[in-house]
Design a protein that fits this description.
With about 525 residues, the protein is α/β, with parallel strands linked by helices. The protein is built from 17 helices and 22 strands. The protein has helices spanning about 10-20, 35-40, 55-60, 80-85, 100-115, 115-125, 150-160, 175-180, 190-195, 215-220, 240-245, 285-305, 320-340, 365-375, 385-395, 465-475, 505-515, and strands at about 5, 25, 45-50, 65-70, 90, 140-145, 165-170, 185, 200, 225-230, 250-255, 275, 345-355, 395-405, 410-420, 420-430, 435-440, 445-450, 450-460, 480-485, 495-500, 520-525. A seven-stranded parallel β-sheet has the order 8-7-6-9-10-11-12, with helices on both faces. A six-stranded mixed β-sheet has the order 14-13-15-16-17-18, covered by helices on one side.
């Protein structure tokens, strides 16, 4: 029975879901790092929020863990790169708190426009300063939204409900997507800053987005505009924001996130026309329950059936996508294993080609399956999550192309492996949507089901070779399950793939290699589907 540790405070609904699914679960939040490291090796999965730091020492102690689930969006507290190297799936719950976070951004915009925090403090102090708190009407104003993902798209919808004109900067959305959101897409952040009366940020903190809103961008903003950040601290240069608000260039600013958290000593707190919340974007009863339930469901599905939802280091797929791609994933792993055993080690380059409809499937999954099969013979810790990084560690260069159609089949996956000892190319396809088949070796057409004990024989194309092979195998009572032949286009070389019920002895291999017209003999062991 898989075992999961809930390491941070989380809704009790998560425990109930794990238990319903047959997962053994321990709820142990609030432990010291030393205490965490002492128990981490007991678990197949760890569920966290943002407190537990799954990095360095703790991650190394989690020797058994297969999946880490983040109840929320950001994974700043998880070393995703190291998890990928270790073959650990990292998943989050990007939809559970999207509405809550979007609504907080809208609340900050409204509060900044009408100076509600300041007016509240003044009124509670016994003052009645109506003329002091002159607000800004949002109707017909221009809203600038940086990032139109899950949260940003909801913010756009709410801003349109306030009858604002909404403009978006997001290089990853198409014109069609912008049109469907009812927003105007702009080409640069600076262009958005120049036109927006209100600028709100909804992108993750990456190297590319750190200080995305710097002194230059803030200077480009309209005199008297408002800046709101409920995304991640560090996206806004806080020193530049301080100067702009203190000087009156910006009417107001509002932050839920900070470059250093918990933010207890931040000079922005000195400014009267700034308002703040303590990183509460996901803090609502509904959101907390949603993300806890989602992470428990996702982790259970993975631990029990390898289903991946919202994988950070592995693409997610719907049930339909998973069913469609599964035979191809199986084929890719078998082809990778076959080609690695068919040539001497010392691989330097892998060239992958996806032809036909298969090119439209999730090629990251297919590529990883090929690399997993390729490397699994020489590495015991390679899997679908770390195969690509393992290949790169080995100095293997990976190339990938896709083509609309294949000359012979509706779908073909081709692997060309370049090694110190030479090159080899194998191709495969899936018949009837469910039957993986190898269909060519070094462009010799030959079809076989890639599983079980297979002998790969290369010989000069001369009469009598097939009979000699059969006689040698029969001499050791080795039963032949399948025997397939292929010929090179020049008809000078032939290939035989022979499926046998048991692994021949070394004497049999020597006898086969001793045949007059034999070029090479290799044994290839493939797991059964």
């Amino acid at each position: 029975m898989p075992k999961v540790w809930i390491a941070d405070k989380m809704s009790q609904r998560a425990l109930a879901i794990f238990e319903q699914e047959g997962i053994d679960v321990d709820y142990k939040p609030g432990l010291s790092v030393k205490e965490q490291c002492a128990i981490a090796h007991l678990y197949d999965g760890i569920a966290v929020r943002s407190t537990t730091q799954l990095k360095a020492e703790l991650l190394e102690a989690a020797t058994r863990v297969k999946v880490i689930g983040r109840a929320g969006i950001g994974v700043d507290n998880i070393d995703v790169h190291r998890c990928s190297e270790r073959g650990i799936l990292v998943m989050n719950t990007p939809f559970g708190n999207t509405i809550t976070t979007a609504e907080l951004a809208i609340a900050h915009i409204l509060a900044a426009a009408r100076q509600i925090p300041q007016a509240s403090s003044s009124t509670k102090a016994g003052k009645w300063e109506k003329s002091r708190f002159m607000g800004m009407e949002l109707t017909a104003k221009k809203a600038g939204v940086i990032g139109a993902g899950n949260i940003g798209a909801i913010v756009c919808d709410r801003l349109k409900g306030l009858h604002m004109h909404v403009y978006v900067y997001d290089p990853f959305i198409s014109d069609e997507r912008a049109q469907s959101l009812g927003v105007t897409k702009v080409a640069t952040v600076e262009e958005l800053c120049r036109l927006a009366d209100v600028l709100t940020i909804h992108v993750p903190l990456l190297d590319a987005t750190r200080h995305l809103i710097d002194a230059k961008m803030i200077a480009a903003m309209k005199q008297g505009s408002i800046l709101v950040n409920c995304a991640r601290g560090g996206i806004v240069d806080e020193d530049a924001l301080y100067e702009a608000v203190a000087s009156g260039h910006l009417r107001a600013g509002a932050l839920d996130v900070y470059s250093s958290e918990p933010a207890k000593n931040n000079r922005l707190f000195e400014l009267e026309n700034m308002s703040f919340t303590p990183h509460i974007g996901a803090c609502s009863d509904e959101a907390q329950e949603n993300v806890a339930m989602q992470v428990a469901q996702q982790m259970s599905q993975f631990l029990l059936s390898n289903a991946v939802s919202n994988g950070i280091n592995m693409p997610s797929m719907s049930d339909h996508e998973r069913q469609e791609i599964e035979p191809y994933t199986q084929l890719c792993q078998q082809l990778g294993s076959f080609i690695s055993q068919s040539i001497e080690p010392g691989f330097s380059q892998v060239q992958l080609c996806f032809e036909g409809h298969v090119r439209k499937l999730n090629r990251t999954v297919l590529r990883n399956a090929i690399l997993q099969g390729l490397l699994s013979g020489g590495m015991d810790d390679v899997n679908a999550f770390n195969a690509c990084s393992r290949a790169k560690e080995k100095g293997i260069h990976i190339e990938e192309v896709a083509r609309d159609r294949s000359d012979h089949f509706s779908n073909v996956i081709q692997i060309k492996l370049i090694a110190d000892s030479g090159e080899r190319t194998v191709s495969g396809t899936v018949f009837d949507g469910i039957k993986p088949r190898l269909v060519s070796i070094d462009h010799c057409e030959i079809e076989i089901q890639p599983q079980g004990h297979i002998l790969l024989l290369e010989n000069k194309d001369r009469p009598g070779v097939v009979a000699d092979i059969g006689a040698i195998l029969a001499s050791d009572q080795i039963n032949i399950g399948d025997f397939r032949l292929g010929r090179s286009t020049t008809k000078e070389r032939a290939i035989a793939l022979v499926t046998v019920d048991s692994i021949p002895s070394e004497d049999i291999f020597q006898a086969l290699r001793g045949l007059a017209n034999m070029i090479s003999v290799r044994y290839i062991g493939l797991t059964h589907a």
